[in-house]
Design a protein that fits this description.
It is built from nine helices and 13 strands. The protein is α+β, with helices and mostly antiparallel strands. Helix 1 packs across helix 3, helix 4 crosses helix 5 and helix 6 crosses helix 7.
Amino acid sequence: MAARPGVSNIIAPRWSRGSAVLVGAVPSTRSRGHPGLVGTSEWSRRASSGLTMRAAIRIPERVSAQLALVFTPQSPQLFVHEGARQALERRLKAACPGRSVVLSITDNRHSIISHSTKDGVLHARIHHMFLDAPSRIVEALVRYVTHGDRQASLLVGEYIEASGARLARRRPHAIPLVAKGQCHDLRAIFNDINARYFGGACHALITWGRKTTRKRGAPRKAIRLGSYGSLERLIRIHPVLDKPWIPRYFVAYIVYHEMLHHMILHSRGSVRSSSSNMASARSLRSLKPRIARRVLHPPEFLEREREFRNHDRALAWERRHIGRLLRAS
């Protein structure tokens, strides 16, 4: 719920900016008929009674410039209700008795949930969409963060996918599409796969990605061969695959994998780079999907992936040539 310019009534409830407590002026939303701004104890009472209230306000740049608020440069322009934050923090503490919990609320569009334990303290960073989530979603979130519950992670992943509109959006920008390489034509490969496996229903875009630089003498330990961004509907393929010694069926497998991320709703990750096909010298499958980047490879995805005609052949080729791929990138 974004604040509107021109609202003159200013009140000062207890809110926080991100994870830092802020007691200051924020624009009132009462005049627009939205739920009033309430204190910590009142928030807990309303939340326990099942009332739906928005717990965070993202201030657009064009609005913040007109308000009597001071933002530090490049800081997130997000106000979080401190009562809602404390209520979720208490739920986490109750689920892990004897441990301290530090909860930070973020507006991060890349890492929706992250947590770690240091010196016996659970540090959790959670997107603000969970502050006013339904009770069953909050319960699943707590089970996932405190116990790594797999069923809970699937439920949380579905909620994140359904709440994608609440993720901060980048400013749109033009992305040049270069599909025809020196050795492989991604558009031709994409069209063949689309006709064979998707009946022409995949409407994603595809391009060769940009070469990345690395420090001189530093060996590369992993490489992202492909990625899919749901905001642009864009598949990017690493340019290291545009080599004469890379077989076409292997490039096609990487393209097929990323097309699946476009076609299967719950396999999409964060807005910036919702999926990735990582290859590592240590282990080709060492980077397990995390709920922080959503459920990337659910059972349906893995089943569909095995339908690719050269699935086993492509994985075998990758295992044999991973060292050469890393050196060439």
